[in-house]
Specification:
1255 residues, single chain, alpha/beta, 60% helix, 38 helices, transmembrane helix, six-stranded mixed beta sheet
Length: 1255
């Protein structure tokens, strides 16, 4: 439903590239050139490749899932995956096996032959042979270089396709979830599945083939080593085999912990989402610290588990890494212990073979094990959602009918084991049926049962005709107002204009500079409650249907507008339709065809309106005489940020939904510095670098000792070869002691290597953990304490994206990248030093080599960085669209709009996939360039030895060549990881962006025993939402005397809620507001807000207990909370203060939630009370009850009431009438009613509440 629609993009260059261009990644050059000149923008992204389209991938997976369901056995995600992608993946694995096996046979043989050429005692190899083996080595390396990066891109591409398919399928499944299951699963969990769990497929697919290929490769290599050196091979092989069960055990442990961690991540995201959604209420109640603490606690639990997983993962990796070193040590030592002399050919042949095995065993195998463990956990979680109960009912629109009908026969509905509807039998035909009854009697449940959202446990529901639905709580999605009304229906200009007219939206749209192209923010936060309700109704009415289900959608409207819409829209526009209207407005009873009255989930009466007198209806609905007054709504405003003028300055027709401010250029040094600071500071960082440096020194020195040992053995064999047998005893002892010394020193270095490797890991690990915790705390503190302007201009989807995916990157990805960079940097340094110790002539080519590397990196980096940012930015619409969808499932299903929203989700996914894939292409192109350059460097090293032939010892030549080969993978890996650090730091940058948002100024005094009287005085108050000259409030002057009851009335956008927001200092004002003579600007925000109570129109409840919702900070004893519960008439509903409230308070009706908000105000016992249309969603009985409670409990308080129903303010001491941000009338009601030309008089007359004396 995006108001901008599909954007045509350029064709992906890979689609038209030739084979050579694809193999060499030449098709990415244009993108690199563009990225080097300027930052890439969303418009520079290509059309997604045809094989990667979200819809087609989702269709394929869904079809296989359905086939799997029909089999009747337990549904296996693995079998579904295999059906879709198994053979393709297996074929890739087979190619990998063939290439890699060929490589491991050729490379060590060619290398050992080349090194043995430099052994002076050999006679069978000529210089021509040396050139042949050198050519073979370089050629094999070059072919490997071309193959490896294309293979990885193919595997990555497959991973992206699997991720995209699962995201599309999970979204489709979410559209079908039954409300019962959705309340169990939670929105946070589904967001985590799409932002985190599906990425396990991508990670796993990289290593899955390597597990079985690794086994085959290792077997081949051990056979080759055995052929070369005999039984000594078993010492090394045995060590590897011993280590595998330990690695597997740790991997399994990590999987178990992963499940726990994901649950904790869900909890944290759920809490964050609740906090962001209700941030205004949290600020008004001064609960920031409580929610900060709650989220911090959830984060602490998550991090604790996460870092145990980390420790296990790192240890598994290091066991593998060090097992190569240990296996080589055991193998060579065994070889010498059984009486053999080592030679350069044997040592470097074995080392070359073990390098391949070590890579398989130390990196691919453990990663494969841990990724398999993580995938198992992710698949279990995804399976829980995919296998969850779906609602029954087709998403296909039924055919139009002239005789629509709704029939319920003995329908009983239970929700969470509680019976909500009891044996309801009801038949409704064409005409207007009114459903009424007290709060919590099941009216909304009845409508949702007709919509088949809830399936009756007994009995049945049959509907005939197309259905349209308007929900009780307006649901709007982030797009234009026009798209919110059309909601995927064809645009019919005449009908559209007529709907705007009958829903009284014409005047409102004229107020907005962008009219119906105005973008609706998350949850319609930038529109008044009344505007939201009317757009919600307009959507239902615009759709051509036979049945219209309207769930109390007039309760948020003022008398004039409510009457107008009831007559023009519901009675006239929807005549000859089957209309079901839930309402508490007794005035409507006379104009409807049938009246259904509900009590406790049952229908107490169902009659034609002509067959029942008004007296009987009133007696049935209400027992309280007070409520028998005509109930007339007056206004429709909800929040302080309801003034539509705030919106005008920032909406334009082409503003993109979920658009984020994207950083440009390099990641600033300040970002790195802050990360270091959060990790413990500069000194800690230096200490960390020092530990890594010592670790590498020990490692490299061990390699050098092997070279010296080989050279010593060569000297010994030279003596034997030259028949120098008359060595003196002293010379023999000297050689033997040198050999023993080298062996002992080498053993010592191996032990130190193990110690320092583990030490460096644990140190980095501690630093990263500390940085993660502090970054999250810093971000949540700044966001919760941000000014309301921040929330007015930022979507929850965008903020949640940073709390989920960006934080996940900082937690899980960044420490690994830092570790790899440190490790690789020091390994390269060690290699250069070792090569230089063989011949200083390598210094110049090495220097040139690194200059070219740095140039290539700097050329790649701007593009890589831009694409990484685009990857993050294009993810936000996916998360935001999912979030918005999950909040409006009932409406979406009622409108049969699933396919439209699914297509839109797929469009968002396609853009994200396009960004991800081109980012991977550029990364592979970069790695290919580096490896090709590295092959050139190897060629220089090899040819230098053959051409000049001036190095006397084969051990030194072997050392240099094997070290140069070691650089093949590690240089491109290091440079890529170095670039990846900057790419990953964009996540830190994005998190830190939110720590720079403007904060509320909480400085100020706290006065003792204040306020004692409750006098409120406004003097020349002006308010602008965006610090411009467009004022929402202009020159407001009035005084509320102690214990005075003040009613505030006025049309939409008049500024009523804005007055209240200034009282709580949600926005700063010009002018002064004093309470008991103290200027509120001089008080601290917490102190001020704690001393004013509010009962808001939107009753917000949080996941937790009743106690947590009434007194989250634990300030009041239980008996006081029980008194408040009793005062708010909740005693029958609340069995215990520890009674759990589910997500968004879904186990309470809207009216019942409002009573809990009343209990919050009662327990605080403040001198100033604000009622922000508090009884909007109440039936007359509860409305009267609440007003009586307020009158009884707040008699000694100054009470401000934003009038919603006129009877609630007609008895006020003073009435303020607002219009266009100004006070136009201000006096006691009697005086105002004497002015027959006044606004107040006209409102009261219109509502039928005018006393006879003034008629």
């Amino acid at each position: 439903m995006d108001h901008i629609g599909k954007i045509e993009r350029k064709l992906h260059p890979k689609e038209k590239a030739n084979v050579l261009s694809k193999l060499s990644f030449f098709y990415t050059v244009t993108l690199f050139r563009k990225g080097h000149k300027q930052d890439l923008e969303e418009d520079d992204l290509y059309e997604v490749l045809s094989d990667y389209r979200s819809k087609e991938l989702g269709d394929q997976l869904e079809a296989e899932w359905e086939k799997e369901k029909k089999r009747g056995k337990g549904i296996s995600i693995f079998r579904v995956l295999w059906s879709c992608y198994g053979w393709e993946y297996f074929l890739l694995g087979l190619i990998q096996l063939i290439i890699k096996t060929t490589m491991i046979i050729l490379q060590p043989q060619a290398l050992s032959k080349l090194i043995s050429y430099f052994d002076h005692k050999q006679t069978h190899l000529t210089k021509k042979d040396a050139y042949f083996y050198a050519g073979l080595l370089i050629g094999v390396n070059l072919i490997n270089c071309i193959y490896v990066h294309n293979y990885h891109l193919a595997v990555t591409g497959l991973g992206i396709r699997i991720r995209t398919a699962f995201c599309s399928f999970i979204y489709r499944k979410a559209l079908k979830l039954s409300p019962t299951r959705l309340s169990d699963i939670s929105i946070g969990k589904i967001v985590t599945l799409i932002t985190k769990d599906v990425h396990s497929f991508e990670s796993f697919i990289h290593f899955a083939n390597d597990i079985w290929i690794g086994v085959v490769k290792s077997a081949v290599i051990f056979y080759i080593i055995y052929n070369k050196i005999g039984v000594s091979a078993f010492a090394g092989m045995g060590f590897f085999i011993l280590m595998l069960p330990l690695q597997a055990f740790m991997g399994k442990m990590a999987a178990g912990l992963r499940m726990k961690m994901c649950k904790k991540t869900d909890d944290r995201l759920q809490l964050t989402q609740e906090t962001l959604s209700a941030v205004k209420i949290i600020k008004i109640y001064t609960w920031e610290k409580f929610f900060n603490k709650k989220i911090a606690e959830a984060r602490r639990k998550e991090i604790k588990t996460m870092h145990t997983i980390f420790a296990l993962k790192f240890i598994v990796l290091q066991i593998g890494n060090l097992s190569g070193k240990m296996a080589f040590y055991l193998l060579i030592m065994t070889y010498t212990w059984i009486g053999n002399h080592i030679t350069a050919e044997i040592v470097y042949f074995v080392e070359s073979c073990l390098q391949i095995v070590t890579h398989t065993m130390s990196i691919l195998f453990p990663l494969g094990i841990t990724q398999s463990a993580e995938l198992t956990a992710a698949m279990k979680r995804i399976g829980n959602v995919l296998k969850a109960l779906e609602i029954k009912g087709e998403s296909v629109e039924p055919n139009p009918t002239l005789k629509p009908k709704i029939t319920l026969k003995d329908a009983t509905v239970t929700f969470k084991e509680k019976e909500i509807l009891h044996s309801v039998s009801l038949t409704m035909d064409v005409g207007l049926t009114l459903i009424t009854g007290p709060v919590g009697c099941g009216k909304s449940f009845l409508l949702k049962t007709i919509l088949q959202d809830y399936e009756p446990t007994t009995g049945g529901v049959v509907t005939k005709g197309r259905i349209s639905y308007a929900s009780q709580e307006p649901w709007l999605f982030p797009s234009s107002i026009k798209q919110n009304i059309l909601f995927g229906q064809q645009y019919d200009e005449l009908r559209y204009k007529e709907v705007l007219k009958v829903c009284a939206l014409v005047y409102d749209l004229e107020l907005l500079s962008a009219g119906d192209s105005t973008i609706v923010e998350d949850r319609g936060i930038n529109l008044s409650k009344g505007q939201q309700a009317r757009i919600n109704l307009a959507r239902a009415v615009y759709k051509e249907s036979d049945i219209y289900l309207l769930d109390d959608c007039l309760s948020a409207l003022d008398a004039h507008v409510s009457d107008f819409i009831f007559k023009e829209c519901i009675i006239k526009f929807l005549r000859n339709k089957l209309v079901v209207l839930v309402s508490h407005n007794v005035n409507h009873v006379k104009d409807v065809d049938n009246v259904v009255i509900m009590h406790n989930g049952s229908i107490s009466s169902c009659v034609k309106s002509s067959e029942i007198s008004e007296k009987e209806i009133l007696e049935d609905i209400i027992d309280d005489a007070e409520a028998k007054k005509p109930v007339d709504a007056l206004n429709e405003e909800d929040d302080d940020d309801d003034e539509n003028t705030k919106l005008v300055t920032e909406t334009t027709k082409e503003r993109k939904v979920y658009q984020e401010v994207k950083q440009k250029g390099e990641v600033a040094f300040g970002v790195y510095f802050k990360y270091m600071k959060f990790g413990g500071g500069f000194l800690v960082f230096l200490l960390l670098v020092g530990i890594f440096a010592v670790s590498q020194f020990v490692h490299s020195y061990a390699d050098k000792l092997v070279s010296r040992w080989v050279n010593l053995e060569q000297k010994v064999s030279d003596f034997s070869f030259n028949n120098i047998t008359n060595l003196t005893e002293e010379q023999q002892l000297k050689i033997e002691s040198s050999r023993d010394y080298l062996q002992h020193l080498y053993t010592g270095m191996i032990v130190l290597t193990v110690a320092f490797e583990l030490g460096s890991i644990m140190s980095l690990f501690a630093v990263a953990r500390r940085a993660s915790i502090k970054l999250h705390k810093y971000m949540i503190d700044h966001i919760v304490n941000a000014t309301m302007q921040f929330f007015d201009t930022n979507f929850i989807g965008n903020i949640l994206n940073r709390f989920s995916k960006d934080l996940s990157a900082i937690d899980e990805h960044l420490p690994f990248v830092i570790f790899q960079v440190f490790k690789a940097f020091f390994v390269i340094l060690g290699v250069i030093v070792l090569i230089t110790t063989v011949s200083t002539s390598f210094l110049l080519p090495t220097a040139i080599f690194f200059v070219i590397l740095a140039f290539i990196r700097n050329y790649y980096l701007p593009t890589g960085r831009s694409l990484k940012r685009l990857d993050a930015a294009t993810r936000s619409p996916v998360v935001g669209h999912l979030n918005a969808t999950l909040e409006g499932l009932t409406t979406i299903r009622a409108f049969k709009a699933e396919s439209i929203l699914r297509d839109e989700f797929d469009r968002h996914q396609n853009l994200y996939t396009s960004a991800s894939y081109i980012s991977q292409c550029s990364l592979r192109a970069f790695a290919y360039c580096l490896d090709t350059l590295n092959t050139v460097f190897i060629a220089i090293v090899i040819l230098r030895f053959i051409v000049f032939d001036d190095v006397p010892l084969a051990g030194s030549v072997g050392l240099a060549i094997t070290q140069a080969f070691r650089m093949t993978g590690i240089v491109q890996w290091a440079i890529r990881q170095w670039a990846e650090i900057e790419n990953s730091m964009t996540s830190v940058e994005r998190v830190l962006e939110y720590t720079g948002v403007e904060q509320e100024n909480n400085q100020g005094q706290a006065t003792d025993n204040w306020p004692t009287k409750g006098e409120v005085k406004y003097s020349n108050v002006y308010l602008s939402y965006n610090n411009s000259d467009e004022y929402v409030l202009k020159n407001i002057n009035f005084t509320a005397h102690p214990q005075e009851k003040i009613g505030i009335v006025g049309r939409t956008g008049a500024g009523k809620s804005s007055i209240l927001s200034t009282l709580f200092r949600l926005y700063e004002v010009k002018g002064s507001i004093t309470i008991d003579g103290v200027d509120t600007k001089t008080l601290s925000l917490d102190f001020l807000r704690k001393h004013i109570s509010i009962i808001p129109q939107d009753p917000v409840l949080f996941t937790g207990t009743i106690r947590d919702n009434i007194d989250p900070e634990g300030q009041y004893p239980d008996d006081q909370i029980w008194r408040a519960v009793e005062t708010a008439n909740l005693i029958k509903l609340v069995p215990s203060l520890d009674y759990e409230i589910t997500e968004n308070g879904s186990n309470f009706s809207v009216g019942q939630r409002q009573l809990i908000c009343l209990a919050r105000a009662v327990v605080r016992n403040n001198k100033i009370i604000v009622l922000d249309e508090a009884t909007a969603n109440m039936d007359p009985e509860t409305d009267a009850l609440i007003h009586e409670t307020i009158h009884r409990n707040f008699a000694a308080c100054t009470v401000f009431t934003i009038a919603h129903k006129l009877h609630s303010i007609i008895d006020s001491d003073t009435v303020i009438v607002m219009d266009k941000g100004q006070i136009v009338e201000y006096d006691d009601p009697i005086s105002l009613l004497q002015n027959k030309e006044g606004l107040f008089y006209k409102m009261v007359k219109k509502s039928g509440l005018l006393p006879p004396a003034f008629a």
